[in-house]
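Researcher: Let's do a round of design. I'm pasting the C-alpha cells now; please hold your answer until I've finished.
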C-alpha cells in the first residue's frame, strides 16, 4: 500500500485495505500511542510506544497495561522523574493512550502527495522517476523526447 522505506509502522493495520481503514476511521477508529518510561542509573527516559490502530469499540486496556507494566518494572525507581513519568504513563495509558490520529492522517496525506508522479514540463506526460537511472546525465521524456527535470 505504501512505498517501502518511508512507511509508518502501525500495529493493527495488518491485512486492512485503505478503504477498510477509512471505513473504520469514519466509525470512530483512532491511532494512539501509549507511554512508558525506563530508568538507567539516574536518568529516566519517557518514551512513546509504536502507533496502534484501535477500531471503534476496541479496548485499549491490555495494550496500555503492558506499557504501564514496563514503567513499573523499569522506570519507576529513577529519581526524581521515574515515579512522575510512571504515574503519567499510568494515567495516559488507562485513558486509552494518546490520540495521534490527526498527526498520522496528515503524515499519510503528505506521503501520498509526494508519491504523485511528476509530469513532463513540455508535453505533460507523467513519468516515473524509478524508470530512470539516477546516474544518467540527462533524462528524456518517453513521449516527446525532450529533457526532463531530474529530482
Ligand atoms: Zn514530454
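Researcher: That's everything. Go ahead.
Model: Designed sequence:
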Amino acid at each position: 500500500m505504501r512505498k517501502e522505506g518511508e512507511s509508518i509502522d502501525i500495529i493493527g493495520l495488518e491485512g486492512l485495505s485503505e478503504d477498510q481503514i477509512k471505513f473504520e476511521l469514519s466509525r470512530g477508529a483512532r491511532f494512539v500511542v501509549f507511554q512508558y518510561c525506563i530508568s538507567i542509573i539516574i536518568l529516566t527516559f519517557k518514551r512513546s510506544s509504536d502507533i496502534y490502530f484501535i477500531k471503534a469499540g476496541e479496548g485499549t486496556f491490555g495494550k496500555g497495561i503492558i506499557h504501564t507494566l514496563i514503567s513499573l518494572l523499569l522506570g519507576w525507581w529513577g529519581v526524581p522523574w521515574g515515579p512522575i513519568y510512571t504515574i503519567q504513563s499510568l494515567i495516559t495509558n488507562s485513558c486509552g493512550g494518546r490520540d495521534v490520529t490527526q498527526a498520522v492522517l496528515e503524515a499519510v496525506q503528505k506521503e501520498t502527495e509526494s508519491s504523485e508522479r511528476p509530469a513532463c514540463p513540455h508535453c505533460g506526460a507523467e513519468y516515473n522517476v524509478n524508470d530512470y537511472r539516477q546516474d544518467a546525465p540527462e533524462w528524456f521524456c518517453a513521449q516527446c523526447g525532450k529533457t526532463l527535470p531530474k529530482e
